[in-house]
Design goal:
4 strands, single chain, two-stranded parallel sheet, 4 helices
């Protein structure tokens, strides 16, 4: 909910962070979340255990780049090339929604990836 590093939280704080977000997403979109990506990629045995008992599957990304800093947005052309040059089968791409660069290039990235033969799927459709 607040993008806190979960290993530093108590069990109760972890549960509150996750379930407050769960409730907010459900109220706004009618969607029951079941996957979680730990904020900042930081996790511990405790956070995995707590989130699993809440019914979540922890999923990490296989590609990310420095796009989260709103004061230091990457160059659009360089960002697009970095994303496209690192595409790979089974990729789970982490792009931050607060990035103006991502907002401006995402449509082109998706179209180019599809032109390269890539297909976008949900985690539920992903072959494991």
């Amino acid at each position: 909910m607040n993008h806190k590093s979960m290993p530093s939280l108590t069990e109760e704080e972890i549960k509150k962070e996750v379930m407050d977000l769960h409730q907010s997403v459900y109220e706004k979109f009618g969607y029951e979340m079941k996957y979680i990506r730990p904020p900042k990629g930081e996790f511990s045995e405790k956070t995995l255990q707590v989130t699993n008992t809440l019914g979540y599957e922890n999923v990490m990304w296989s590609f990310a780049y420095e796009d989260w800093n709103e004061e230091k947005q990457p160059d659009e052309e360089k960002a697009k090339n970095k994303i496209l040059n690192n595409l790979h089968n089974g990729e789970i791409m982490l792009l931050h929604g607060n990035s103006k660069t991502n907002m401006n290039i995402l449509d082109g990235v998706i179209k180019e990836a599809k032109n390269m033969g890539y297909v976008f799927k949900s985690l539920d459709e992903f072959e494991r």
